[in-house]
Sequence to fold (407 residues):
Amino acid sequence: MSDEIHKSHISDEIRRGQTINLILATAAFAITFWAWNLIGPLSGGYSRQLGLSPTQTSMLVAIPVLVGSLGRIPVGVLADRLGGRLMFAVICFVTIIPVLFEGWADSYGWLLLWGFLLGVGGTSFAVGIPFVNAWYEPARRGFATGVFGAGMGGTALSAFLTPRLVEAVGRASTHMLMAVALAAMGVVMLLFSRNSPAWKPSTAPALPRMREAMKVKATWQCAFLYAVAFGGFVAFSTYLPTLLQNVYHFTQTGAGLRTAGFSIAAVAARPLGGVLSDRVGPARVLLVSLAGTTVMAIVLTFNPPPEILAGTCFVLMAFFLGLGTGGVFALVAKLVEPSKVGTVTGLVGAAGGLGGYFPPLVMGVVYSATGTYVIGYVLLAATALAALLYTRAAFTSASTTGGATGR
Fold:
């Protein structure tokens, strides 16, 4: 009888804490993602100021993505051991350092160095997924991870507000404001968030847990799909300001405004992808996402004119990619046991970030060689089509049962 009372108490405690902790985690994710994407909206200004080539600009934009990707692996392991509350705060506080020094950097070398360390902000994703998963029952984890994933709207905030703040108060002051926001968010997480009563710290050594996670078939399946969906989103949200200035000759502020619209569309679609995954299965959501991405990439090869045609293509591209990001982590929640979610999330998240690291580099090289981005769009269409065919082959039962092929 006492066990039943204890379980009932935990259940009541979880219900009371679900919403506030989901909101706090999403806010922390948004703030750290804003910091992670501070360079992309200003890339055109750096390029003109320092006389950078398209390849150098691409490297500058992509470098935070690299650390934010690979860093998710150890951060996911630490989230399993230390819990999301503490790890969110640590990431906020640590990210303050590169944010400040990036604002003071005055050479390409220093921008690269602090941009590299700025990638720490991008690791927060590997904290949030296991954190919110522990607060929600399996049937609602697609919803929870989808809402949390909307925190990637921090890239939209950065694209829209960062250029305007730089124009208004200067680059150094803008970065100082970002540092203050990170410090405030870290304090808020320590004071007001808490780990779910259902969460238990993992005490197993990290390397064996990573090896175990890598033996799970779903880890590799979801890593590939997330590299396409989230990688596509990251690549566009960081490189789109540069692309729009090169192809359509928008100002830095104008390109930032349009990139914000791209990010908002993806942000809105991500929770929708999670909710739909709960209802119809993640495989169906992924099939729609990848089919739409393929079609939009093909359309963009024809270099449609601004504003209506090109704008519509980019917004629809963002929408389809956002659906896919919600679908992938609904798949993770269904396939992976809770004790491994943090570690698997770190690996899958790293794959997603790496998927966003290489396209800007490729686009920079392609543009330098050809003066156009057509080859880059063709490569995106081919990759999305390959992922579509794989999803159809590997997850034929997921759309009807909510599951997928074995581990």
